């Protein structure tokens, strides 16, 4: 089995990671920063989007299904904001080094009745910087911080096996 990677941005990375890691077909997740200009987390804001890099099994889950899941947890019409998180780094996006993933994402959005209103960017992944350790799987380690997340608890763990 050859896995593939895609990067999804849906506002605060804590919630996106906590939600998506339980989706069947997802192998691993890593919180980080997409498409900034630096290669460190120790710099001024450099244009990045908070995101989660997802390794997945394409024989178990498709890119379109991963995008379906992203749309479960975002307001796709919101520009630079998800819930209480406001700013360019909280924009929504789909990023990949695989041009086929980007084609699928563009087709997915174009096929929707509300395509003209959708504010999710679809771009090649030019840079990924992993978040610091304290941000990796943060809501698993610190569920008490869930109040800081825009995703309701019942949705956040929709795919988690008990």
From TrEMBL:
Keywords: Oxidoreductase. Residues 5-145 form the Peptide methionine sulphoxide reductase MsrA domain. The active site is at 12. It is an enzyme of class 1 (oxidoreductase). GO terms for molecular function: peptide-methionine (S)-S-oxide reductase activity. It comes from the Bacteria. Pfam families: PMSR (PF01625). It catalyses: [thioredoxin]-disulfide + L-methionine + H2O = L-methionine (S)-S-oxide + [thioredoxin]-dithiol; L-methionyl-[protein] + [thioredoxin]-disulfide + H2O = L-methionyl-(S)-S-oxide-[protein] + [thioredoxin]-dithiol. InterPro entries: Met_Sox_Rdtase_MsrA_dom, Met_Sox_Rdtase_MsrA_sf, MsrA_MetSO_reductase. The keyword Kinase does not apply. Its EC number is 1.8.4.11. Belongs to the MsrA Met sulfoxide reductase family. HAMAP family: MsrA (MF_01401). Has an important function as a repair enzyme for proteins that have been inactivated by oxidation. Catalyzes the reversible oxidation-reduction of methionine sulfoxide in proteins to methionine. This is Peptide methionine sulfoxide reductase MsrA. It comes from Vibrio porteresiae DSM 19223. The lineage of its organism: Bacteria, Pseudomonadati, Pseudomonadota, Gammaproteobacteria, Vibrionales. The gene is msrA.
